[in-house]
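Annotators were shown the component list below and the corresponding predicted structure, then asked to write short factual statements about the assembly.
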Amino acid sequence: MDCPNCGVYNPEERDICWRCDQTLPKPKEPKKKSDPQSAMRRMWIIIGIVLVIWILLTWLLPNLNLPGL
Ligand SMILES: [Zn+2]
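Structure shown to annotators:
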């Protein structure tokens, strides 16, 4: 973490700059690596969309009376 006031490097665990006593902003929490629950939810959303499209197609196609079919 570089001090926003004087730009000197400070270790991550420090709250105050060792050089100018400026309060350092807290380091951002590391983002969680691929949350399995959200991945599962996304998968189910995709499955749901595919199902809706499939149901619509199977329902629509016999009712379309397209020439040549
Ligand atoms: Zn500083």
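Statements collected:
1. The CA atoms of residues 37 and 43 lie 10 Å apart.
2. The chain has one helix and no strands.
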